[in-house]
Amino acid sequence: MSIFNKVLASVGVGNAKVDTKLNNSAFVAGEMISGVTEVVGGNTAQNVDSIYIKVYTTYEREANDNKYTDSVAIYSHKLNEPFTIEKGEKKAFPFSFSLPLITPVTMGRTRVWLQTGLDIKNAVDPGDKDMIEIRPNAYIQAGLTAAQNLGFKLRKVDCEEAPRAYRGITPFVQEFEFIAASGPFRGKFDEVEFTFIPKGSDQVELLIQVDRKVRGLGSLFSEALNMDESYIRMTLSKADLSSLESRLNQEIARYS
User: Fold this and answer.
1) Residue 12 pLDDT > 80
2) Global pTM?
3) What kind and span of H or E run contains 149?
4) Do 113 and 151 sit in the same domain of this protein?
């Protein structure tokens, strides 16, 4: 019977189960995330090489004129050294770690989740998936509020493959796409995109892409060549947030 149970466990029948329970479900990038991972033995004893928790999200990339959605683990946390889980035994493993600063905000189509797994040789590794909410940090919230006050309406939020210059920092960036719905910039832009790239815990690089509206034949040619797009780069610290709205107004106005 023991041999039969081991055979079943090797194909995922009656093997150990894993369940991660979080102390909270909403976070800001950079905050500590904590909880406990419970492992319950199956029909036979199994050797577990490790328990791992990975932070996942998805992003879009283009290749050969096609779009693909990739899942990416932006962080991996190992909980333990190898151990044996006996038949029906229950073990609990507390954990805590800091969410990466590049963890995207769960707005629009963006989703973030924890994937917990057991690494068991010669068996189907059991797993557990937990969705989490990521709220805007102080920089993103200040940028969203400033944009809204200037008459911009948030139209889309998604993660896309990072520009080549930033791929050493992150494989993707999160883009916040706005339209000028009211205020001084109404009718002057097709869209404006904000991208926030962390430069440590106390600085953020804000990239702004301004896409001007087409006016006349010359502008049509400019649009075809992407010459109607302009880029603004800012480095922000906490001290800059109180004046961010006026600074954005001044910078964006240069391209209106």
Assistant:
1) no
2) 0.84
3) helix 138-149
4) no
